[in-house]
Fold Ribose-5-phosphate isomerase A.
Amino acid sequence: MTQDELKALVGRAAIDHVVPGSVVGVGTGSTVNCFIDELAKIKDRIAGAVSSSLKSTERLQALGIPVLDSNSVERLPVYIDGADEIDRAGCMIKGGGAALTREKIVADIAERFVCIADASKLVDTLGRFPLPVEVIPMASSQIARKFEAMGGNPSLRNGVITDNGNLILDVHGLAITDPAALEAEINQWPGVVTCGIFARNKAAVCLLGTADGVRTLA
Ligand code: 5RP
């Protein structure tokens, strides 16, 4: 199966995790796009979606799925999103699509994070994928120096402005052996909006697309 077929497979499988009648938290990316397409088929059975990016909002609305403001919703039973890397404990690197901050906000409102990913995303240790960090523009050089001091190699993502008007630093060369500790440390640096480690609020379950079908990691 191709990577696209695996993404379509887990996008379909995620529908089983949607709670009928509820508002669904929706992530961002090519795997989530497959999920949104499936969600459109059952749109009469859900109350709408809270979206993590302008791109996902556009796709949801184009398919006739109502998008609610995150501030109007107190609780989401489930948030469904992809990942750039996921380890066996459910910790993830996210932000390849630059939507990490809104993704973390919607995930925080949700009771369960269901990650959908093709098998190439499963790793033993996070960090092969460069870590995305959303930063306030005036702090980008200072934050880059802090990453260099810990052995990382940061670069500004060319031409990218996030939905929140900020920049993305991609940090290569970090071996993330304690994801929750590193997430906490980076998040308290002045000017960091969000770091792309999702360990303090990690995936409760991962639907992994493999050549043998969907493997559920919980
Ligand atoms: C966007 C993300 C995506 O979930 C991540 O980049 C995975 O994307 P894809 O499903 O296209 O591989 O974090 O900010």
